[in-house]
Amino acid sequence: QVQLAESGGGLVQAGDSLRLSCSASGRTFSDYAMGWFRQAPGKERENVAAISRVASMTYYADSVKGRFTISRDNGKNVMYLEMNSLKPEDTAVYYCAAKLSGSTRAYWTEFESYRYWGQGTQVTVSS
Asked: CA nearest 88: which of 8, 16, 9, 6?
């Protein structure tokens, strides 16, 4: 299994940037497809980005496309979410998630697909 820990959240103003990190330990990181999810108060957890095992494929929700970039460094066991042009509606707890994958190109966007989760990091964007 894999253990995940997010970092990099904080309080920023609209238009600012943040980079979230998800550090992994345990089983070989490159065995897992990864995803970033977020959950705002009173809302369901939603997928914002996903990436395949070797970063050959990526996915972005329409709400973040062009502003967020997902990446991973399998040599360092870390996944990133670069967030630019942040908006107040990006305010949420951000979670990273991992799914054991047999494919180098597959990614998943459904919450139920992921077995391993980090504890979350708060991102607050003020207007």
From this structure: 16
Kindly report the three-state secondary structure assignment for every residue of 14-38.
CCCCEEEEEEEEECCHHHEEEEEEE
For the chain, what percent of residues have pLDDT higher than 70? 100
Q: How far apart are CA 120 and CA 39, in angstroms?
A: 9
Give the closest residue to 87 by CA, choosing from 40, 46, 42: 40
pLDDT value, residue 55: 83
CA distance 22 to 80: 6
Which residue is it, tokens 């305010």?
A: 91
Closest listed residue to residue 29, CA positions, set 50, 59, 52:
52
